[in-house]
Write a structure and sequence with these properties.
By secondary structure, this protein is of the alpha/beta class. 37% of the residues lie in helices and 21% in strands.
């Protein structure tokens, strides 16, 4: 039998319905966060296999039961990897149910972590191991961690870092590497470095693709159901626990989150899961500036509205000077051209 592989078009209701039915038959659903989907069609133009991409991840892959054993998943995977190569993405990740892990292992993927219903894999045998090996080690004393987006770095972030550093001998401060929004990851990290330079014992590190990224936790960047958010948070924390074992991290801090559903749920999952991995978890109350909670989204909105002075009391000098001066002009312009400054 001959098969044809093609990109899924959103206007084709029949094909879209068959994709959803195929996924549902495998106990899956089509993710909200997808940027490409392909379908494999038989001679009658019926969907016999499908797969999708989001960023540098492969997901929502399934083969119709009566066509298993024909090597169709290999065709889908080859096509998706060609699409990713055209995008410049060579380091790839995927989710699968535990039963599917051996098949994807045969196709060149290696397990990083798993939870009861989900396995997280990558196409580099030593990718995760190399990331962990490159992180600096502190041989003695209590080690703690903070993971932050710092979008941008505020006095609230500085308060969290100061509080965490005071409670340990070494603080690993991981800054999200994901490019999501007009403030580049390199700028966010540089503002963190400037903002914590006075705090002893802080090691500022990149999260890479292994912590709160589009690979481990896409719902952090794109809204999804509470069930999906919790599952992805659990997977993300399973990966973090492996990193923590490598670095002997025994304590993780996070800021209180009264407004964001995703971050609030993530804090709940951390409170439940981290102690199971031998990691103490502590939440630091959110800092106020007068009557207002300090908020990075409020800072982005003020920049967008050309009203940076209104949030002067939320920012350390290093962040304020960046956005108020010539160094930050391009980033300020990018923020002003962004429609949704709250949710990126």
């Amino acid at each position: 039998m001959r098969y044809e592989i093609r990109a899924l078009r959103p206007g084709n209701r029949r094909i879209n319905g068959e994709v959803d039915a195929l996924l549902e038959g495998e106990g899956l659903r089509r993710d909200k966060c997808l940027d490409y989907t392909c379908v494999l069609l038989d001679e009658a133009y019926r969907v016999v296999a499908t797969g999708s991409c989001f960023g540098n991840t492969l997901r929502c892959m399934a083969v119709a039961p009566k066509h298993r054993g024909e090597g169709l998943m290999s065709l889908v995977m080859s096509h998706l990897m060609e699409i990713q190569a055209l995008r410049g993405n060579l380091h790839l990740f995927l989710y699968t149910k535990p039963a599917g892990a051996p098949m994807f292992a045969d196709l060149g993927f290696f397990e990083i972590a798993r939870i009861p219903d989900l396995v997280f894999m990558e196409n580099r045998r030593s990718g995760f191991r190399d990331y962990c090996a490159a992180l600096p080690r502190r041989p003695e004393g209590l080690k703690a961690a903070v993971v932050m987006n710092a979008n941008p770095f505020t006095l609230g972030h500085r308060h969290l870092a100061e509080h965490a550093a005071a409670a340990c001998d070494s603080l690993y401060l991981f800054v999200l590497s994901e490019e999501a929004g007009p403030i580049p990851a390199g700028v966010r990290k540089e503002l963190v470095l400037r903002g914590v330079s006075h705090i002893p014992g802080v090691l500022v590190q990149d999260t890479g693709p292994y912590m709160i990224s589009s690979a481990t936790f896409p719902s952090y960047f794109l809204r999804d159901s509470e069930e999906v958010i919790r599952a992805q948070a659990q997977l993300d924390l399973t990966v973090f626990a492996r990193i923590a074992r490598e670095l002997d991290i025994r304590l993780r801090f996070a800021g209180e989150e009264p407004h964001s559903l995703v971050t609030g749920l993530y804090n709940q999952v951390m409170a439940a899961r981290l102690p199971e991995a031998g990691i103490d978890f502590r939440v630091i109350p959110r800092l106020r500036a007068g009557e207002r909670f300090i908020s990075a989204s409020a800072v982005r909105k003020a920049i967008h509205d050309q009203d940076l002075p209104s949030v002067r009391d939320m920012l350390p000098d290093s962040t304020y000077d960046f956005f108020a001066g010539p160094e930050g002009e391009a980033v300020v312009q990018a923020i002003r051209e962004t429609e949704d400054v709250i949710h990126y």
